[in-house]
Design goal:
The structure is a homodimer. By secondary structure, chain A is an alpha/beta fold. The first copy, chain A, has 2 domains: about 140 residues, 2-Layer Sandwich (Nucleotidyltransferase, domain 5); about 120 residues, 2-Layer Sandwich (Nucleotidyltransferase, domain 5), CATH 3.30.420. Chain A is about 35% helix and about 25% strand. Chain A contains 9 helices and 14 strands. The first copy, chain A, has a 6-stranded mixed sheet with strand order 3-2-1-4-7-6, with helices on both faces. Chain A has a 5-stranded mixed sheet with strand order 12-11-10-13-14, sandwiched between helices. In chain A, strands 5-8-9 form a 3-stranded mixed sheet, with no helix packed on it. The longest helix of chain A has 19 residues. Chain A is globular and about 65 Å long. Chain A starts with a strand and ends in a 12-residue tail after the last helix.
Chain lengths: ~300, ~300
């Protein structure tokens, strides 16, 4: 099985590759060779190891997005400044490779100067979401380690704001004093809802609400499932309180994993906001496919 | 050099002991035998190792406060419920010991049911601050890993609220993505002030303000000293925004390390709040001295 072209989602922790044909996705494969564990010289071998079975006689285009394009990545793909379209095929950055069977381009991330903000990888998901929803105007939310809220108008990213929400959840639930009260992986929907309500109503009290999870565990029998779910709710609720300008009265599209988008959809539903949900993988592939469609144009010859 | 009695501040990370005589503090010593690394059977040997040079012919009273009295400590000293005096000599909890040269009592912590909150160790500092400022009415703030705001009236703790501020600073500055932009130990006062102002004005945006530190490091040349100081300011500012009911128009006493109380005093001065500052060590010793004063009373014979 050969690929016409290969889409690559190369983040800090994982490397995911998708073999694409005219009919769409043919195969996918994943490794833990994330950007964070590779030196510049190790990127090409890590990629070849993963995609070699898909390479044929000719040159197979590989389009990558994510932290692979950061300064600490394979090759820096300098940020483009918003407002702009999330991804422009002609502006992908070519990477010199030794293996003649591939040519590689990396999608540049986006930056915003005021307030300062950056994204890498999400721009491709946004481009994909726009490809799947042509003419979309409104807000996109990409929950994750660094959750993004994005205002889209006329095919461009007008502005965006990043929240440390996912990373905060990971730190508090596994590294802080709160970890003692939230072992396991269980869940409690009512506690999540209560956390969202509290986080939205009193976002400024977050540092106190966090300690209260510990105190209730010690003196009020708060269980681990409820504590973890309320922590998640508190953080998502605080994010929604601060991102109201994005979602209030707007069309909202969520792009992410089923688990995370489900939580955000539930929290937004409590605010009478209905959302559409797209899978992150589908959007990444659609975004890179949009870029791949221009690979034969002269403008991208620089990639060779 | 022998001690009349010994004050012990036994936290999660460190064990500090103070040899006390009629004139006050005679000597002090410290080890890293914190509660967190000891099993119950290891507490007495760890204590004896540290204080043995101070023990004489008779029985030397040892009064301890802090996490040593938690469920995971040497012996649980159950929380007392507020409103109540921060420390009552007759209610210290005796600990059975093998070594006949000492008798040991542990100060119980305080709990508040609504909103749920707990403290261990700070109650002793509060009692000490009250011993140093008899008749004090107003707010006390004890900044630290888990910063406490406390309302004091008529010698009692009326209510209190804990903020995860110090632990959040440690996590974000050393464990999160922000650590890449705040190496070293430098400081930038203007950046701290700006962080306080932003944290107080927009506490609900904390998760976004945090990520902005990273983004400004990447695209706007934010330096490590400024990033670390602004992070500190953001967190302290958010704490002040949420604790306004405690300090607004109140007498405020800060109890803690010189470095931390200095930051809080500076942040509060920007709100036209003047504070008095007491050193945590002085307050711990004064609080335990207050408890020690009752050691000869019949009520504490239970300790023998």
């Amino acid at each position: 099985m050969k690929a016409d072209w290969i889409a690559v989602d190369w983040g800090t922790t994982n490397l995911r590759a998708f073999a694409m044909g005219p009919e769409g996705l043919r195969a996918e494969v994943m490794s833990e060779d994330g950007m964070g564990r590779l030196t510049p010289a190790e990127f090409e071998p890590a990629l070849i190891r993963l995609i070699e079975p898909w390479l044929g006689q000719g040159v197979t285009p590989v389009l990558a997005c994510g932290m692979v394009g950061s300064r600490q990545g394979w090759q820096e793909a300098p940020y483009r400044s918003v407002p702009c379209a999330p991804l422009e095929p002609g502006q992908l950055v070519p990477v010199p490779v030794r293996d003649g069977r591939i040519r590689v381009e990396i999608a540049p991330g986006l930056k915003q100067m005021r307030p300062a903000d950056v994204m890498r990888g999400e721009e491709t998901q946004i481009a994909g979401a726009l490809a799947l929803h042509p003419g979309f105007d409104g807000a996109m939310c990409l929950p994750g380690t660094h959750s993004k809220w994005v205002q889209i108008s006329a095919g461009e990213v007008v502005s965006f704001q990043t929240f440390l929400t996912g990373e905060m959840f990971a730190l508090f639930s596994t590294q802080s004093v709160l970890r003692h009260g939230m072992a396991g992986t269980g869940w409690d929907e009512a506690a999540f809802d209560a956390g969202v309500a509290e986080g939205m109503a009193r976002p400024e009290r977050l540092a106190a609400s966090l300690f209260r999870l510990r105190a209730e565990g010690l003196i009020a029998d708060l269980g681990a499932d409820a504590a973890r779910a309320r922590l998640s709710g508190l953080l998502i609720g605080a994010e929604l309180a601060a991102s109201r300008a994005y979602w209030l009265g707007a069309r909202v599209v969520l792009v992410g994993s089923a688990a995370l988008t489900g939580l955000y959809a539930r929290a937004l539903a409590a605010q009478a906001v209905t959302v559409e949900t797209l899978a992150a993988k589908d959007c990444t592939i659609a975004g890179l496919a949009y870029a791949a469609g221009a690979l034969s144009k002269p403008v991208s010859k620089a990639a060779e």
